[in-house]
């Protein structure tokens, strides 16, 4: 295989850079149950953080609400949805500011990449920009990305969510990059599909998943298009080298 010049590394935020999914979905579940009560939606049982993660990992709150409106045949006005989106951001950001920690091993990787100076680093997330910035600032990772933090919920003219590739296409356009010179790191099916559909090679990451789910999620991410799947950030340097050599 021919070698490939990689110039840019695009990183998902939630459960790729920071261990945020459990905290975020915990707050999100409470709000969705409140909405169901207000809209007289007969849920089979109330949502919990874990049940939301199982079904919606990688999607943002707006995307979840669009799906749930279709499933349970209820509707809300744009103003109502915007209000709930803001409330969800506030609830989740408060939890993140209190308890958020980085994914194991990622800070050492980011520090080394920054010192080498070979690659442009950016965050590409489904989550709201305010939440993403609060997350990377809380754990001290904001210094690696500057203004290159992109949100499918906030950065686009029309808000969307992964697996729509729009946010990846937007990010590489703003940075003046081509898909073939980028790689993305993603922990979810929707994120992997988003990057792959944008023509970007995706490295899967299953580190935060419980041990009994890692093998299954490795298969899920591979089927979604990941060229390789890491269990730990210590593998990243070797994976990057293999991609540069054209082996992946």
UniProtKB/TrEMBL annotation:
<dbReference type="InterPro" id="IPR036412">
    <property type="entry name" value="HAD-like_sf"/>
</dbReference>
<protein>
    <recommendedName>
        <fullName>Phosphatase</fullName>
    </recommendedName>
</protein>
<dbReference type="InterPro" id="IPR023214">
    <property type="entry name" value="HAD_sf"/>
</dbReference>
<dbReference type="Pfam" id="PF00702">
    <property type="entry name" value="Hydrolase"/>
</dbReference>
<dbReference type="InterPro" id="IPR023198">
    <property type="entry name" value="PGP-like_dom2"/>
</dbReference>
<dbReference type="InterPro" id="IPR006439">
    <property type="entry name" value="HAD-SF_hydro_IA"/>
</dbReference>
<dbReference type="InterPro" id="IPR044999">
    <property type="entry name" value="CbbY-like"/>
</dbReference>
